[in-house]
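Hypothesis: this fold can be encoded by more than one sequence.
Test: take the structure tokens below, design a sequence, compare later.
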């Protein structure tokens, strides 16, 4: 185990402590501009969390939770607030891990390919929320996720949907691809998973994605993430939040969307390495 670097900006008593299970490295991380915008009151994060609730059965039990790629901790805080359960989180972005003040019972700087023995088949619920599209070798990555999930556990994945919407924004935030359900199913099956439930969401955002793609073509790189993710004004933010409420009220899932969420479980037979 590696010692935790000191953080002079915030007392350790005021934040979740980070346990270093992997040696710190220069692993690529999300653009800091994106994290400056990412907040619990952003319409997109509220929308994504609504879809988690829509796809999970009423009888779902979270059990032990691992949020892989937890970033700045928005999802953990949402889960704790609504479901009164607390996740563990892991990431390879030290700055974001060390910024999390609540919402997690344990935070790990941890490369899941390391496959800590104590975590084998350990977690009842694993979250991969907008992580897989950043991974160069998704099958290998999902096989390491498989190692951590209990035999009866559930994997919840969210990814950006449909390659036709790929734009400069995707490139700058590190997206290597966007998914459709068949593409994601193939990757999951190769790694030993099967889809239990799935749905696109953000159908009403599709016109905005097309507009964004066009606008960003003429936008300087240093401004593109902000233009692509932050509402232009409080009024537009409220309008987008209204679209969220409207779509999630009318539809449990949509036939097409800006994002895709799935619930998966392990095959009975483990995949060959």
């Amino acid at each position: 185990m590696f010692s935790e670097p000191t953080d002079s900006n915030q007392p350790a008593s005021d934040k979740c402590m980070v346990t270093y299970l992997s040696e710190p490295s220069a692993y690529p991380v999300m653009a800091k501009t994106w994290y400056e915008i990412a907040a619990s009151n952003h319409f997109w994060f509220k929308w994504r969390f609504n879809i988690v609730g829509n796809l999970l059965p009423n009888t779902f039990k979270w059990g032990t939770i691992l949020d892989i790629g937890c970033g700045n901790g928005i999802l953990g805080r949402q889960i704790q607030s609504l479901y009164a359960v607390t996740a563990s989180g892991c990431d390879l972005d030290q700055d974001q891990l060390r910024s999390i003040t609540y919402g997690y019972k344990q935070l790990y700087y941890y490369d899941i390919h390391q496959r800590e023995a104590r975590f084998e088949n350990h977690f009842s619920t694993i979250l991969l929320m907008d992580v897989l599209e950043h991974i160069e070798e998704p099958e290998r990555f999902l096989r390491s996720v498989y190692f951590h999930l209990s035999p009866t556990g559930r994997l919840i994945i969210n990814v950006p949907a449909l390659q036709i919407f790929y734009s400069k924004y995707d490139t700058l935030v590190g997206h290597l691809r966007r998914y459709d359900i068949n593409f994601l199913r193939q990757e999951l099956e190769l790694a030993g998973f099967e889809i239990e439930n799935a749905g696109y969401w953000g159908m009403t955002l599709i016109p905005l994605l097309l507009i964004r793609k066009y606008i960003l073509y003429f936008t300087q790189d240093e401004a593109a993430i902000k233009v692509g993710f932050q509402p232009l004004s409080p009024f537009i933010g409220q309008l987008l939040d209204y679209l969220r409420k409207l779509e999630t009220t009318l539809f449990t899932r949509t036939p097409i969307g800006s994002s895709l969420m799935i619930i998966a479980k392990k095959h009975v037979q483990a995949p060959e390495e």
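The chain has ten helices and eight strands. The CA atoms of residues 48 and 158 lie 8 Å apart.
Hypothesis status: open.
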